[in-house]
Amino acid sequence: MTVVEPIRRIQDIRKVEKILEKESKRNLLFFTIGINCGLRISDILGLDVKDVKGKTHIQINEKKTKKFKKFPINKKLKPMFEEYTKQRRLHEPLFITIFGNRLERTAAYGIIKMPAKKQGLRKKWERIL
User: Fold this and answer.
1) pLDDT exceeds cutoff 80 at 124
2) Interstrand relation of 68-72 and 57-61 (parallel, antiparallel or unpaired)
């Protein structure tokens, strides 16, 4: 399995956020959770609407380590969750495809890969993604 390094430069994060903001709320929220919470991709994709809607904290059992993790939803994510989940049912996956299925790892990889490529960051990220 490939080891993924974090994005270290705030300028790179902002560039990717700008592109994702234009694409979709789902993609921006997905990226923002990863940047702000430090969760593994499997844990982000495993979230359901009920895990974040109207909550002050996210509570999960990590898929890889099976450890319980609880952390506050920060001021950047709170309004994003409110907007993204207001018309959603509690027991559906937080991140879904246009067909209503849970978003998969390969699609999640593409969400990050394309904005990186557009901003000229792809070469740097290819070896870590």
Assistant:
1) no
2) antiparallel
